[in-house]
Amino acid sequence: MTITSLTGVIPPVCTPLTPDREVDVPSLLRLVDHLVAGGVHGLFVLGSTSEAAYLTDEQRRLVVESVAGHVSGQLPVLAGAIDMTTARVLGHVAAVTAAGADAVVVTAPFYARTHPAEIARHYRVVAGASPVPVVAYDIPVAVHTKLPADVILELAADGVLAALKDSSGDLAAFRRVVTGARAHQGITGFSVLTGSELIVDAALAVGADGTVPGLGNVDPHGYARLDRLCRAGEWAEARTEQERLCALFGMVTVGDPARMGPGSSAIGAFKAALHLRGVIDCPATAEPQVPLSQDEVERVGKYLAAAGLL
Amino acid sequence: MTITSLTGVIPPVCTPLTPDREVDVPSLLRLVDHLVAGGVHGLFVLGSTSEAAYLTDEQRRLVVESVAGHVSGQLPVLAGAIDMTTARVLGHVAAVTAAGADAVVVTAPFYARTHPAEIARHYRVVAGASPVPVVAYDIPVAVHTKLPADVILELAADGVLAALKDSSGDLAAFRRVVTGARAHQGITGFSVLTGSELIVDAALAVGADGTVPGLGNVDPHGYARLDRLCRAGEWAEARTEQERLCALFGMVTVGDPARMGPGSSAIGAFKAALHLRGVIDCPATAEPQVPLSQDEVERVGKYLAAAGLL
Amino acid sequence: MTITSLTGVIPPVCTPLTPDREVDVPSLLRLVDHLVAGGVHGLFVLGSTSEAAYLTDEQRRLVVESVAGHVSGQLPVLAGAIDMTTARVLGHVAAVTAAGADAVVVTAPFYARTHPAEIARHYRVVAGASPVPVVAYDIPVAVHTKLPADVILELAADGVLAALKDSSGDLAAFRRVVTGARAHQGITGFSVLTGSELIVDAALAVGADGTVPGLGNVDPHGYARLDRLCRAGEWAEARTEQERLCALFGMVTVGDPARMGPGSSAIGAFKAALHLRGVIDCPATAEPQVPLSQDEVERVGKYLAAAGLL
Amino acid sequence: MTITSLTGVIPPVCTPLTPDREVDVPSLLRLVDHLVAGGVHGLFVLGSTSEAAYLTDEQRRLVVESVAGHVSGQLPVLAGAIDMTTARVLGHVAAVTAAGADAVVVTAPFYARTHPAEIARHYRVVAGASPVPVVAYDIPVAVHTKLPADVILELAADGVLAALKDSSGDLAAFRRVVTGARAHQGITGFSVLTGSELIVDAALAVGADGTVPGLGNVDPHGYARLDRLCRAGEWAEARTEQERLCALFGMVTVGDPARMGPGSSAIGAFKAALHLRGVIDCPATAEPQVPLSQDEVERVGKYLAAAGLL
């Protein structure tokens, strides 16, 4: 894979589990086939939507091996190397690249209190030891810092970073990276990807190279269509498609907030939808997430039906 | 070890590193001897001050094996099992107990967005699988949630938790756990430990069972003396000793905030002090922390001198 | 004014001050003329960019009277009624409407810790007593809560709110209000305005009715042009114009962060730019904001020159 | 009043309201008599517990005039001058001192994004214009910044501040101000007061001069007794009394969090308790706070009964 591959729709692939919380490889491969059939352009395994934070090292390795082996180079496989600090991330980088990942996706340090200088140092050390391109993953809701645009651009100019995956929800900051990268003579082939599945049309309009939509697990055809419409400049049709997907995204709120957090609800809904659509065998999520109730699952079904997916 | 052992001074043991960032076992064992000679009552390895977030699984195992083997039951060894979620924590629990830990110390889930119900579920699953007692580690600055007092008390009453290590800095909430545990008929043998090294006298006065002071690496004698004075009800002398230690703690601010975060400065200062005192061979901290400058190290020396430690 | 007037460019009008920090009415009226000549569609006085939080009640009244009297109905004048809680806001509503405001702009309660039920109650009481339409002002950076989309839509459906001015920077949440208002049969004539001056093209593309750009003080012609291009569906040209304005916006960072906060820097830069462009007599900002240095003002001038405004 | 008066128990006085939300002066004066009879050493009107954020300027003035006139110099009356920024605060300073306040209590700027340099500037300007001593009010939960200890000490050394009222809950930071003020040759007569009503014994043990307990409205005798015990060095008895007060404080949680915020619950409970104890005529709180239900009020009564106050 070259870094220029990082365009189009690259969904963060859910990790189907068995009822006893082991990786369900057959379901995982059916999910991959479902995504490829949907027209996606790459796969991002071991992201936040993949429950990477919940998987053991063995499970993570199994996911990458299974997916990379299955697609065998047809489309790029990015793999998260999600951990607290540099040495631990380097362990994951070694593991996932040995297992076949074409690029690694790395957040700012977390748990540790961090500083822009330490974030930059982190990426420099990781990239120095990585055999594949490094994608910065900006996800403040998880790591509690925002990657500063100037740090991203400096690292891009120095060849440390091949891409940014922005899940911050801050389109103005995202645009600063897009225009900064375009204006900077020293930056070439840097991809800027949005993880904000509800404003893909807007992100592509401001210059994003691609999108990493969690909801793309449930409706990959929809995100592929949205991507095509935006690239064709069919903005009105794109907006209609995006709004259909926004309505579908409402499923993430089915979980009762008195009983579970927003993550349990969102991941639970995506997996319930994949189960209802017949893609995966079991909607289980990893511990300590709280499972959806039967009523909540039925509400997921209504979202699917309203979007024409059941 | 029984849970009733968790009283007195239980410092979070720094992890000395070599210049190439491997665990320096001889220095680590000298540090342990220094702490034991200082009169501490237990050891907490793989805590935040130990740079657990920065150590690989192999390094973590080596730390526990080395320390547990060295002290061989003379005093209890608690080990952090610091990771994002349940399954990953369980891996660390298995590893550190195999390596000799007498208890495990576990935070709320992090990276994942969490909910009190998920926190409780996390501790229940971890305790269900742990061969040793589980200590809850409340450290909002790292995990970005505060352990609710009612969750702690419910888990203590159900025998899930053996102790709380509170690094939240919130003495009123700490007191609620102390008095709640005392008032609850179903809670026996539950230890409440403070990680707030600047208000140990106050925490013991409100009923804490013990203290986990990062600065105890630098001056274990001081914290042992403080503990004795408080237990003897010598509050005025205790306050004088505590204030001496507070002044010494000023070393954590030597690092230039324009160049590094507060963690790099604090851990860097503790290690510089241990190096200056001749306890460890090298003051290196793990990546991506920024090292102290020579000037900053000299300022650490002045703090030591002012406290009568050089 | 009817609520359907709330479309197009409605800049938050800066409040020029004399060197002794009194409202400089002649400069204020020249600024209004500059904005009207630039093609704006309405004026928002006493917003955050207007330093409403810094002005006394007398100064606030003078601003509204001066501006409303000057424009005398040519275009709508919205006025902030920025205060902590309901009774205090009602005092400002009475004052600014007596002074000629056509609508009032009201944030969630602040200082007080608040709850969605209390936010809704706040708007219901304010609207019940206001002689003019009420615009909700969503500005989490100032009030530290985000207005929930479902609360906004409920209040819009009940006729409590005439519009939303969204300065949260969260385009996905903004879109939820836009599409929710459109889909709701009970909501008519509700305007959704964005305060995110760096993504006006994107906000209009997702369905915003108008924009409230602080930078519009400096370059009203640019924002009027951008608005026209977007309404004409000239998205490529709109993007070019927006990117020019984004570059100009860089002026808000001229202030040294070691010496002042981001507000001092941003408001200081806007006023310095208006002074350099000859619109206002004095660039002073209100206490306790820190003034820009001469060097920093010169950097503002370079931003103006680069954007073709000097 | 001289600044040396600021010791002992200085409760933030609740503001009784009539059913139509006007200040109920007879109830207010009965409350003052209740506090004086309870043995308090000063009164703090227009603080957070006084609902200052909810009162109009006229209501604020009425409160100060009524209370200052009633006590006529028997004990010092501190008054909050709670507003967003400097010029607005100065207006309140003029009003409350004209109405008889002996000192003013001022927070960091809020709503505006602020910086330590701006906070210092704010206090310098306010103190320069205030005819009475200025007390810094550290209340991060309301203003969303913490007053840095070094800023406080610098301002104390320069004679800008007469005292600190710390409602941050951070006893370690509080201690830094206490010991810093004691160690600094240039600081004399500076009072350090805690607003943390659950750890008064601890705060006095570390060197606080006094306490500002919201719960002191409900049980002034308890806080006066606690203050005496601490000053006498009767720490065990003090702890028992403090724990009784902590249990009583549980009343602040009676309000259903699904229906109201923590402020509505806490202020509502204090006023319900004062009503049940026969001190005030009506337990109403200001808009937009949500009133307690009848059931919730009954639970307040149970807390009173358990503490021996009914």
From TrEMBL, chains A, B, C, D:
Gene Ontology annotations of biological process type? small molecule metabolic process
Residues annotated as transmembrane: none
Q: Which UniProt keywords apply?
A: Lyase, Schiff base
A Pfam family hit: DHDPS
**Which SUPFAM superfamilies does the protein's record reference?**
Aldolase
**Which residues catalyse the reaction?**
137, 165
Chain positions recorded as pyruvate binding sites: 49, 212
| Family annotation (InterPro entries) | Aldolase_TIM, DapA-like, Schiff_base-form_aldolases_AS
* Source organism superkingdom: Bacteria
**Single GO molecular-function term?**
4-hydroxy-tetrahydrodipicolinate synthase activity
- Assigned protein family: Belongs to the DapA family.
Q: Which protein is depicted?
A: Dihydrodipicolinate synthase
Q: Native species of this protein?
A: Streptomyces azureus
